Amino acid sequence: MFGLMQDRPLLISNMITHAARFHGNREIVSRLVEGPIHTTNYAEVERRARQLANALAGMGIKQGDRVGTLAWNTFRHIEIWYAVSGMGAISHTLNPRLFPDQIVYIANHAEDRVLFVDLTFLPLVEGIIDRLTSVEAVVVMTDRTHMPTSSKIRNLLAYEDFIAQGSADFQWPQFDERTASSLCYTSGTTGNPKGVLYSHRSTTIHSLACNSPDVLAIGSKDCVLPVVPMFHANAWSLPYGCAMAGAKMVLPGAAMDGRSIHELLESQQVTFTAAVPTVWLGLLQYLEAGNLGLSSLKRVVIGGSACPRSMIEAFETKYGVDVSHAWGMTETSPLGTAGALLAGMESWDLEKRLDVKTKQGRAVFGIEMKITQDDGADLPHDGKAFGNLKVRGPWVVEKYFKGDGGQVLDAQGFFDTGDVATIDPYGYMQITDR
Ligand code: AMP
To answer: Is pTM beyond 0.85 here?
Structure first.
């Protein structure tokens, strides 16, 4: 017998329409690549996303088409994400830090029809445009006054002109929640990069799980600074989670040095932020050198690579900021584990707490996690046995885009992450090798 509850599709457009309707005035602040700080809000971003969806539809972009971005975290990138996924097309974040040859491979493999690029990346695109076989239009994410006077790229469009072509008279379409929403390629350290194709369903469930208290714990009162780029595994779901919660969002653009990050943390009174350890190293050095403090920051999530124990200790003891060490990968949307302390652990002494916090955290609800020997046999969760880390769940990859890499799941449907780890009796996973 099936339940008798409404079977409404979990769509990404619901996130931004909810934010616009119930948190419409909540701000989205960006440091633009052109220089200034720009402030908008959810209502405005949702309206402009509808305009953009209309403009894209006007040039023939339809459901399932790929639309690429080479861009930093700014409000325009947020608008593109919501417009493209919301209209049923696929938002493809390209990683500008890859080699140009890899970017060519990825854009051609994805068959991106349109490329949205920040001014910063225009020289990069000019260098490869002749080799991009599917790109029909390049839109520079700026206004007319900041457009270059000449470019090798024919018919270069300014984002603000492009968006102005579309009317806001657009209804977000309803479709199956399993429809592809976005695409992100693995970094391809071995072989060609492979595409991970997220769905509206996987993205929504992942974002809901990420917002829960022992994971990212984002609420409407939070002011969130996603330093982790949107091209790095969906900025760890923050642009989605903030919209769902109605949190204020602060977007750092291209400036991720200690001084710029500190300036945003303080001027915007950020409560929660997330990035890889190298960003935090820069910030901690800047604070140390200037004898500065953090007046509003309460929590930071650190992941992407192993977070040093000394970094966790510095945040917690010198600046009173709670650190959660998280693990994930492009193939897991990305969050798989997060490092909140369990009941009773708060009273443990510092060294013992740091022992726990240095590990990569516990499985988020929705993620099943195990370690196995090479023959596939399960290993004990005793904190000593180490083996292949495998995960299964509704936001974990099933197959790569276009079938690359063949079958990637084991007989039980677990994905082998390639990481080697231990799991302790409390459930904390620790990466020991890759
Ligand atoms: P990517 O798909 O580029 O995000 O890379 C994912 C890989 O980064 C994982 O498979 C791990 O090897 C590594 N990684 C991510 N988070 C952590 C972490 N907290 N500690 C150690 N390695 C990590």
So the answer is: yes
